[in-house]
Automatic annotation (TrEMBL):
Name the record gives this protein: FAD linked oxidase N-terminal domain-containing protein
GO CC annotation: cytosol
SUPFAM superfamilies: FAD-binding/transporter-associated domain-like (SSF56176)
Pfam families: FAD_binding_4 (PF01565)
InterPro entries for the chain: FAD-bd_PCMH-like_sf, FAD-bd_PCMH_sub1, MurB, Oxid_FAD_bind_N
Ranges of residues in domain FAD linked oxidase N-terminal: 37-147
Species in which this protein is naturally found: Candidatus Daviesbacteria bacterium RIFCSPHIGHO2_01_FULL_36_37
GO MF assignments: flavin adenine dinucleotide binding; UDP-N-acetylmuramate dehydrogenase activity
Length: 194
């Protein structure tokens, strides 16, 4: 095993880093590939930390959400596979009216971690009285992967927070580059459900 992999395990926790991990249980497409080294990030802080480590140690990496869009014929994936299981959804700003009957939200800015599934996001929006995002992506897709391909989601995205070679940046959809950026979170503008 490479010394660089031992450094990753020491920094992230020996019990959380897996070697020669089968991806069949970690992807919707049931990949039969194996990851040379595997880690599940459950918070943005963990995701940023593992990306920074991989970049610093020059370890090739692949970030997977639900794995609905990733297919490969390769038997093994060299380097680090990072499973993005980040889950935070928060209302950042609201526009509406206050009356004696309460708060009437007309629209809101929702910040969503990239590991959140479209289905979970829509459940949150429904419970909050907001319109669902009706993109073309599978409800199992994660926001971080779907934002690259789904024009409906792209149209509702007002800001995208990305990791780029150790830097955190805010970009718009026109600046988003799948060969350069790892999506951390997306801010969507959504209207109240009628």
């Amino acid at each position: 095993m490479e010394d660089r992999y031992k450094l990753i395990a020491a920094a992230l926790g020996e019990e959380r880093v897996k070697y020669d991990e089968r991806l069949i249980h970690h992807t919707y497409t049931k990949l039969k590939s194996r990851a040379e080294i595997f880690y599940i990030a459950t918070t943005l802080k963990e995701l940023i930390a593992v990306l920074d480590l991989a970049y610093e140690l020059k370890i090739p990496y692949l970030v997977l959400g639900a794995g609905t869009k990733y297919l490969t014929k390769r038997a093994d994936i060299k380097g680090l596979v990072i499973k993005n299981r980040t889950t935070q959804i928060k209302i950042g700003a609201i526009k509406g009216k206050v009356s004696t009957s309460g708060l009437g939200i007309e629209e809101a800015q929702i910040e969503v971690d990239s590991g959140v599934s479209i289905n979970k996001l829509n459940d949150f929006l429904y419970e909050s009285g907001l319109e669902n995002l009706r993109g073309i992506s599978s409800s199992l897709s994660t926001v971080g992967g779907a934002i690259f391909l789904d024009s409906v989601l792209q149209a509702q995205a007002s800001m995208i927070k990305v990791w780029d070679k150790g830097d955190i940046e805010n970009v718009d959809i026109l600046s988003l580059d799948k060969n350069k950026h790892v999506v951390l979170s997306v801010v969507f503008g959504v209207k109240a459900r009628i």
